[in-house]
Design brief:
Helix content is about 25%, strand content about 30%. It is an alpha+beta fold and about 200 residues long. It has two domains: about 120 residues, Gyrase A, domain 2 (2-Layer Sandwich); about 80 residues, Heterotetrameric sarcosine oxidase (Alpha-Beta Plaits), CATH 3.30.70. The strands form two sheets. It has a six-stranded mixed β-sheet. It has a five-stranded antiparallel β-sheet with strand order 3-4-5-2-6, covered by helices on one side. Helix 2 runs antiparallel to helix 3. The two termini are about 25 Å apart.
Length: about 200
């Protein structure tokens, strides 16, 4: 685990904070970097004992239906596969949360790994956010098919991502490996140019 004082945003060199401080023009797309959130990779059977242990740790059960998200307070859990979830929390809480999960899941065949440094997170919002995603993503993003509380592992501009729709406005969180974050940010800005794009605070 990286020492907290050594952590650096994957997009720090782009000066996004300065751009966000400026008064944004009217834009159909808002981009932000949502840095330093805690991320925990969770693997397990999904059986009743597993679900009960996770619920005892988090205060709510993990989603069992494919591509769904569960949330309570500052913790969000994304379904990534039949035996795989991503637990997302506010920065600084991931270590304690991972420890609690391991304690409650003791005796079960599981994996609990803190992966906060593995992925960057880009926030995407605005009236044209869905249109922007359609430029580079093959998912059916119509609200009837993909709405709030849905997530998916997919490709965006040929980059593997996790897409999580936060609300119906629409706004999304895009999880991307740190090594690809700058490329994807640049692609998003370029693809959004026709809609008007502004940088917002994360």
């Amino acid at each position: 685990m990286v020492e907290r004082f050594q952590r650096q945003s994957a997009l720090a060199h782009l000066g996004l904070a300065v751009r966000a401080a400026a008064v944004p023009a009217k834009a159909g797309v808002l981009l932000s970097e949502r840095g330093f959130l805690g991320q925990i990779a969770l693997r397990g059977s999904g059986d009743p004992a597993f679900v009960a242990a996770v619920e005892a740790s988090l205060g709510f059960a993990p989603p069992l239906e494919p591509n769904r998200v569960s949330e309570r307070g500052r913790v969000r859990v994304l379904w990534l596969g039949p035996d795989e979830w991503l637990v997302v929390t506010s920065g600084g809480r991931e270590e304690g949360l991972a420890k609690k999960l391991l304690e409650k899941l003791q005796g079960q065949v599981v994996a609990v790994v803190e992966v906060s440094e593995a992925r960057a997170m880009i926030g995407l919002a605005g009236s044209r956010a869905r249109d922007l995603l359609r430029h580079g993503c093959s998912l059916d993003l119509h609200p009837r098919s993909f709405g709030p509380g849905r997530c998916a592992q997919t490709l965006l501009a040929r980059v593997p991502i996790i897409l999580d729709q936060r609300d119906a406005s629409p706004s999304y969180d895009i999880y991307v490996h740190r090594s690809m974050a700058e490329y994807l940010w640049g692609w998003l800005e370029d693809a959004a140019a026709g809609y008007g794009v502004a940088v917002a605070e994360g």
